[in-house]
């Protein structure tokens, strides 16, 4: 979307655990010969991954449907990694959207029941960033809110496995800006 709106692709990076998804992306958008985005296949939890090359270089990190894959500690850890990727100055920005819940808490994934996914509401998301700030010696202004749609009802209507999207599920949108 950024590139469609005119952002220079040479200034952009994309990352995912799966390198195959990047190759599929070129096939989908037919832009292998024009796109100058640097793609880095990496595990967010691997401190020695290729992401090390861009640590401290990034102005804006966008993460969609990502942190919600993990339990509370995993999300916390991932946020500390995101702090390291961002430039170490006020104004650095982390934005995105993920599934949240009016009642924050642990939800067990039905695809892999051993994985406990934590669903934040705006308050717990803000609390997480307060802790991340304390641990990393940084300060963040958090704007997070649950959108209106009832994702549980939508999942049921679409015949999707609604156990992973229990009642109270809503999109949690957020913008987390570094203040100090
Ligand atoms: C639900 S998809 C979201 C993809 C995309 N952001 C979107 O909104 O369509 C979650 C992505 O996270 C990736 N992922 C899962 N665990 C990861 C990890 N530990 N490090 C990096 N990426 C991971 C998966 O490969 C998957 O592509």
Automatic annotation (TrEMBL):
Q: Which domain of life is it from?
A: Eukaryota
InterPro entries reported for this sequence: Meroterpenoid_MTases, SAM-dependent_MTases_sf
Q: Which UniProt keywords apply?
A: S-adenosyl-L-methionine, Transferase
Known pathway: Secondary metabolite biosynthesis
Asked whether the keyword Transferase is assigned, the reply is yes
What family does this belong to? Belongs to the class I-like SAM-binding methyltransferase superfamily.
Classification via PANTHER family: METHYLTRANSFERASE AUSD (PTHR35897)
What this protein is called in its record is Methyltransferase type 11 domain-containing protein
């Amino acid at each position: 979307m950024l590139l469609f709106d005119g952002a220079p692709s040479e200034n952009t990076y994309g990352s995912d655990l799966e390198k195959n998804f990047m190759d599929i992306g070129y096939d989908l958008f037919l832009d292998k010969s024009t796109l100058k985005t640097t793609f880095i296949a990496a595990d967010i939890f691997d401190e020695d991954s290729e992401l090390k090359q861009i640590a401290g270089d990034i102005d804006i990190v966008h993460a969609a449907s990502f942190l919600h894959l993990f339990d509370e500690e995993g999300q916390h850890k991932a946020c500390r990694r995101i702090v390291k990727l961002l430039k170490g100055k006020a104004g650095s920005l982390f934005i995105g959207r993920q599934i949240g819940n009016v009642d924050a808490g642990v939800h067990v994934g039905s695809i892999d029941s051993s994985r406990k996914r934590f669903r934040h509401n705006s308050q717990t998301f803000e609390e997480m960033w307060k802790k991340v700030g304390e641990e990393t010696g940084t300060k963040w202004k958090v704007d997070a809110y649950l959108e209106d749609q009832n994702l549980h009802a939508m999942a049921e209507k679409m015949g999707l496995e609604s156990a992973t999207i229990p009642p109270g599920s809503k999109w949690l949108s957020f913008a987390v800006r570094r203040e100090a």
